[in-house]
Amino acid sequence: MKYIFLLLLIVASVGVFIAIIVPRWDEVKTERTTVATYNANLAIANQLQESRQSLIAQYNNISKTDLDNITTLLPDSVDNIRLIIQLDSLATKNGLSSLRSVDYDPTQVPTTNPDGTTTTPAATDPTTDPTTSLLPYGQFVISFETTGQYSNFLSFLSDMEKNLRLVDITEVDFTSPDPSATGAASIADGMDYKVTLTTYWLKQ
After folding, report:
1. How far is CA 197 from CA 102, 105, 131, 173, in A?
2. Same domain, 82 and 13
3. Among 61, 86, 108, where does a domain finish?
4. What is the pLDDT of residues 92-131, one digit of tens each?
5. What pLDDT is stored for residue 107 in this prediction?
6. Does residue 68 belong to any structural domain of this protein?
7. By three-state DSSP, how is residue 7 classified?
8. Are both 78 and 50 inside the same structural domain?
């Protein structure tokens, strides 16, 4: 009888262990895993916060002059009007005529959405490379014509290379005036130049 009672007690203990202790232990292990995950996420959040504060401190240490130069180098919008004014100023500074026949695709100019983001219609054109919409920067192609001596044109190109606004000259066409049609005075003025270039802007 004594052995039967001990046997029942052992069976009851095992049943309690299986029915109560094991599920609770599984819950504890699950909670520990959850807590460990939260702690890891919190550590990452703290690291990101520290990195953010460090970047803000570095940004605040940049002088206004340097910030203006960075904005000029890679503006956060096309700012096509200012670009045209800058190019015209460089042309006249180097003895060339004012720009004429300025041409660009208006769809390259991004529009501002109500949520503050920008959309470039050309990027969604199915005929364009779809990967361009994934780039962190946009491209703006513009062409113009000017007239002057070749040496002045070379000086103009040199100033464009030194200019803070980032541009890539993709095409230059030279046209010399026809003496029989324009006369000697026009020949002395130099040649006609058509320049096509690409500039860039940083997407927000």
Report:
1. 11, 13, 21, 12
2. no
3. 61
4. 999 999 999 999 887 766 666 656 555 555 444 444 555 5
5. 74
6. no
7. helix
8. no
Angle at alpha carbon of residue 180, lines to 178 and 182, rounded to 5°: 60
- CB count in 10 Å sphere of residue 180: 6
Between vectors from CA 106 to CA 81 and to CA 163, what angle results, nearest 5°? 35
Tell me, yes or no, whether 26 and 95 share the same domain. no
Give the integer Cα–Cα distance in Å for 126 and 80. 24
Its domain, for residue 6, covers 1-61
Higher per-residue pLDDT: 197 or 72: 197
- Tens of pLDDT, residue by residue over 33-72, are 888 888 888 888 888 888 888 878 876 777 767 666 566 6
Residues 48 and 108 in one domain: no
Q: Identify the CA nearest to 156 among candidates 72, 99, 198, 73.
A: 99
Place of tokens 């490379």: 129
Average pLDDT over residues 146-169: 88
Mean predicted lDDT score pLDDT of the chain: 75
Instruction: From 199, 187, 59, 97, select the one nearest 143 (Cα to Cα).
Output: 199
Q: Count structural domains, the chain.
A: 2
In a domain, 69, yes or no: no
Mark whether 106 and 147 lie in a shared domain: yes
* Of 79 and 177, the one with more pLDDT: 79
